[in-house]
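Hi there. Long-time user, first ticket. I'm pasting a complex I've been working with (about 313 residues overall). I'd like to know whether the download I got is complete or cut off, because the file seemed smaller than I expected. Thanks.
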Amino acid sequence: MNQEFDDLLELGNFYILSQRFEEAIKVLKKAEKIDKMSPVLYFNMGMAYEALNEKDKARNSFRLTLKLNPDDKAAQEHLTRLVEE
Amino acid sequence: MKQFVVIGLGRFGSSIAQALSAKGFEVLAIDENEDRVKEMEGIVSQAVVMDATDEKGLKELGITDFDTAIVSMGETVEDSIMITLSLKELGLKKVIVKAKSELHSKILRKVGADRIIFPEREMAERLAESIASPKIFDFIELSKTYGIIEMVVPKKLVNKTLSDLKMREKYKVSVIAIKRKLPYTLPDGSTDFKEDIVVGPGGGDEVISGDVLIMLGKNEDLEKIEKL
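Hi, the file is complete. Here it is re-exported in full:
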């Protein structure tokens, strides 16, 4: 595991929980440059975009999560909600 | 408790019957088609197979005890006019009718319909609005001059308190509520949201990115905010 990636992911999560969604996206994009195969990364990105009401980007992020982890129920729920809105 | 009668159980009629029933209202659903009525059994309080153009039959059903009728006869314009007329003659207080065309709507008005709806058109207009401006979730016209808009906060207004923003002085609109997604951690460490709504926010409330503002004002002033 890459420590820098983990740190960025954690920082992203911290920003999401602090409702600083734009900052969360910035750090998650940095993390994406290190690892493009992490479903957790795209899930968190989807959450941040969803909170910002950037629905197209949120949908794309949750789709990427599901591509990498088809069993992710939470991502599926969020995606369904965003598609049906 | 309010009681509703829904006549015509096509896609629109059955959806509205289900929605009213889910809200806890007593709903009587009527259609000529037995299959459609069967589908509503157990969902609404009562589902009856009958030809609703039969005024006597409607009377026998005790239709006059209902507060509101919703007439949704998909294809048969004539029937919907006949039924509306019967319902008004029987003394029903409020009759809402689904119309197919402007002409249909005109006739319905003449025979006493209290409200005429064009669900497809209304839905299409809303969809067009939301595709054209994805940041606007809803717009309710209160009068020709005033409206309520529900929109994602423009970037220019983010990270400031309502008293800093001086919405009323600067933009001549009142923020009546703020909707936002509150993140929280689940026991397994993952994150989810719950919808939070601040009704009648005060000057000290801060607006953050992604917030949805519900604002009341003159239509022209609301339009200015849309363009921020």
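A couple of notes from our side: The first strand of chain B starts at residue 3 and ends at 7. The two ends of chain B are 45 Å apart (CA to CA).
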